[in-house]
Amino acid sequence: MTEGLALATRDLRKSYGSRLALDGLDLSVPSGVVYGFLGPNGAGKTTTMRLLTGLIHPDAGSIEVLGRPFGRGDRHRLFEVGALIETPSFYPFLSGRENLRALGAAGAPTSGTRIEELLELVDLNDRSRDKVSGYSLGMKQRLGIAAALLSDPRLLLLDEPANGLDPAGIVAMRETLRRLAASGKTVFVSSHILGEVQVMVDMVGIITAGRLVREGPIKELLNDQGVVKVRVRGDELDAARAALAPMLGTDGVAGAAGGDGWLSVRVAPERAADVNRLLSQAGIYASSITAGSDLEALFLELTGGEEKAEPAA
User: Fold this and answer.
1) Do residues 309 and 299 lie in contact, with contact meaning Cβ atoms separated by under 8 Å?
2) 255 phi-psi bin (left φ>0, alpha ψ -120 to 50, beta other)
3) Each residue of 103-120: pLDDT tens digit?
């Protein structure tokens, strides 16, 4: 069932020659959320984004965009979709404002007021009359987001939107995307900045080898990925593992790489006191305890941390 979904794929498949890029991908993206689309390099993220915007076509499977099937003859429906795929391209000899005007003239009708609103939104007012050839990577990225929003789309597809942004720019982008979702739009974001995704999205989908391996509300996924980290003396690591084993078995207690005295215990964050109690009963006193949920740990567990180059279409 795809009712109530802004975006859905079912058994989506795509190959490049003998290499299978997507192997039956099923995504379910509800309306009005920020959805984080994650996967290692070569997992099929860029291929998926290209399929969703009609840049390439699937070998098999189906795509639904805003409740209706999307195929080869439906490119005009992309007026309802804003997209920033890979590095945005602009006319370098035109200013930022002139580029937006040119793009607006080529698509759905766009008012001058709308262009000014978007320049304000992405904080490019002061540089809007400058030629794009003089823009930094981060400025071009912000202009690309403005271009994706020209037609006031209901669905926004963004491929690595934080690319080239400084920390302040990343925070501003996060707040902008959250506001767009709160207004009823759906934002589909592919990103490798897992820490930023964790605090920005409502839902997450993780793919590897062209298949979906986990999808759901971010809070639910992270509750299942609770971790308590404790630091003990290096010569007490083995004794600490043994002391914590009754809580969840030795497989649920891992030592940090490098032997720096940190242990990661796979339990809900609210059980940090139980971890501390077991250690103290064994005569082991932690010098530090932190509790939380870690999207990076979940990502690495599901994908194996493998990185591969994804081919160009």
Assistant:
1) no
2) beta
3) 988 777 788 899 999 999
